[in-house]
Write a structure and sequence with these properties.
Shape: globular
Largest sheet: 2 strands, antiparallel
Radius of gyration: 21 Å
Strand content: under 5%
Structural class: mainly alpha
Strand order of the largest sheet: 1-2
Number of helices: 17
Length: 372
Amino acid sequence: MAILWVLMALLTLSFVVIPLLRRRRGVIERVSPDHPDAADPANYGFVREEDLDIRMPGPDQDLLDVLDLVQRTQDYRAASQLLAGTEAAGELRWQRVQAFAGAAALELQQRPGGVSETPGGQWLRVWRAEQPKDAGGAAVHAEFLVQQAWRTSTRGTDDFRIIMEEAKDACGQAALLAPGDPIPYIIELSVARGLAYPREEFEQLWLKILDRAPAHMGAHLAALHYWCEKWHGSRELAYSFAEAAAARAPQGSLLAAMPLFAVFEHLPEVNLVSGFYQSEVVTKAMHGALYAVHAARPDDPMLAHVRHLLVLFLVRAERWAEAMNELVHVDGHVGALPWTLSADPAAEFAVYRALAVAGFEANGGSPASLPN
């Protein structure tokens, strides 16, 4: 799934052993996990670290069931049916396309194939061969190629460019099969970033998406990358893009959280002190995201993405009760930013969860007073 971002290793290094907190003479101090005063996330009914699901940001049982069936039988038809029955312009279909493509890419990585072994992800190849006009299969194939480029090649090399050009062609084919579908163009946003589209060309691509799905959160997050300082824009351009999206967000849209994602993309690499996270810029972005979360539909597929990012910011800002409130809603699934930037997303999430629990208790909180 989608898949955006970079700084969590620094925080992991700064908290080599999970630093839990307790109150002593009005001061918060760190204590080791086995200390008798250490807070225990299990007391709050949170899922054990080893049981956290790293595949998705939140529950999607239909997707999990189909993924299990496809990978077990190597028969693509259930995936085709699921995508055909998922709203074309919705966030959920985009997430499912990413999930199927990611599953095929991971299979291929684990089983590259050989003289006597069928390569992993064969079901996707069969899908494209048997159903060449299936728009869902075409989109999954295009996204698969994009993920392969980023996973297996180095940006700027011939291999990377060749795979990305193939992905661009696949996006065009997918778009022809479903003219009103924004997903082929959303996939191409990653191609645009990788191949460094000129701004005019990128903006033309973006207009095609706005014509089809103007409030698509996943598309906005994918486009934000292009405008970031580390890619083809600047901090100012990224902030401007995010703030414009938030300003035109319809009621109940999570686009109001876009400035927080822009802030995350430009976090200073050495500033991990809470003062930065209590600054006006960060506080304003957090408040926008909190507003978006409270106004959004409970079943919005992008809601978990915003909540996960809020956990990071709220913990760093030492807003423990609010962090706990977000954790209650997302605990169990960690397949989202910022955790997916880590080599061990579950462990990264567990660090922040432990900090939130400890800070919550150090300020008088308890399982009985857990916000909900």
